[in-house]
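ARCHIVE CARD
CATEGORY: sequence design from structure
SOURCE FIELD: tokenized fold
FIELD CONTENT:
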């Protein structure tokens, strides 16, 4: 490995391009040496702005490239399985944007392939675990000061989503963050999911079930509910409230600067998208991943954050969610026992 970690970024759409900019400007000890995208011109344009960076047209060649120490996958979900397996074959540490893969069966194959290597190479980009407010809430729960958590209420609102977003994507692309937050905060698996379909917003595209209310039960019988509403037309709003035996705690109230001025109005600003709301979390996530990869050669653990198992668990819960979306019934989550891997 050279002095700086040499990263290949695969997929430079909105998220991947944002990660390239962050690595080049705010992350210490790393640089982008290879870019790949299925739109080659987009990759060429970005690579031209970075010293010592080139485009590799085939994603598997980009992963295997000798000038690449680690890989950041921001490619579409359906391509992840093949690309993750290539990272494992080449022993390249990888930070994979969610989803790990698009279904539980292939996610489990990835978990098993990594386990067979005896090295921890895969980190999944559930960035909320690195957000200061979520870290504080987790610390409060773990301190025991709130008592035992009983119920979690979540709100996940987006002003808009791309035109290809369908009702299942609301579960797999948006609600998936609440799946991970639940597992992170409560330290246990989700055992069942029910999706309730309220009257859809007239502003949602035809056929899109929006909003949706998701209800999770956990192993110990805790209740988690989430309102996911992805076409509010307002701003990006993510709130989590934990109700426990000795009190409750809430994050995501958007209480930055509050201005009072003419003509007698009162208020502040709400972030327009997840790029701003979780910008600091993405920075911390990537810096800690880079540091973990650099340390990894000694320990065999190249990850500091959620791993392949967390990606598999999320895929299994979302699969149950999509099935509940179709039937309206509560659906049990089918997961293998972790000790069997
Ligand atoms: C997007 O892919 C994200 O990951 C955002 O965090 C989420 O809020 C949004 O709904 C997803 O589409």
């Amino acid at each position: 490995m050279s002095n700086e970690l040499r990263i290949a970024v695969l997929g430079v759409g909105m998220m991947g391009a944002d990660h390239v900019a962050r690595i080049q400007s705010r992350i210490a000890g790393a640089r982008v040496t290879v870019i790949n995208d299925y739109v080659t011109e987009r990759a060429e344009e970005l690579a031209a702005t970075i010293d010592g960076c080139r485009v590799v047209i085939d994603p598997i060649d980009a992963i295997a490239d000798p000038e690449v120490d680690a890989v950041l996958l921001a490619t579409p979900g359906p391509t992840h399985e093949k690309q993750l397996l290539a990272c494992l074959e080449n022993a390249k540490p990888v930070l994979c944007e969610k989803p790990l893969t698009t279904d539980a069966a292939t996610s489990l194959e990835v978990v098993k392939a990594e386990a067979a290597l005896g090295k921890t190479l895969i980190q999944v980009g559930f960035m909320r675990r690195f957000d200061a407010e979520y870290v504080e809430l987790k610390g409060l729960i773990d301190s025991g000061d709130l008592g035992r958590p009983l119920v979690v209420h979540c709100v996940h609102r987006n002003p808009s989503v791309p035109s290809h977003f369908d009702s299942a994507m609301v579960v797999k692309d948006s609600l998936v963050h609440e799946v991970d937050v639940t597992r992170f905060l409560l330290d246990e698996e989700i055992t069942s999911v029910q999706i309730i379909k309220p009257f859809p917003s007239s502003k949602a595209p035809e056929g899109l079930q929006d909003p949706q209310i998701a209800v999770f039960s956990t192993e110990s019988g805790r209740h988690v509910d989430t309102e996911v509403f992805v076409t509010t037309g307002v701003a990006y709003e993510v709130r989590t409230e934990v109700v426990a035996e000795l009190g409750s705690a809430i994050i995501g109230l958007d209480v930055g600067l509050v201005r009072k001025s003419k003509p007698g109005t009162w208020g502040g600003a709400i972030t327009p998208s997840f790029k701003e709301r979780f910008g600091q979390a993405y920075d911390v996530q990537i810096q800690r991943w880079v540091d973990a990869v650099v340390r990894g050669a000694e320990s065999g653990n190249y990850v500091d954050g959620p791993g392949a198992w967390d990606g598999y668990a999320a895929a299994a819960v979302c699969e149950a969610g999509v099935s509940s979306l179709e039937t309206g019934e509560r659906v049990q989550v089918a997961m293998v026992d972790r000790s069997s891997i």
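CARD ANNOTATION: DSSP finds ten helices and 15 strands in the chain. The chain has two domains: 5-127+279-307, 128-273+315-332.
SHELF: design records, drawer C
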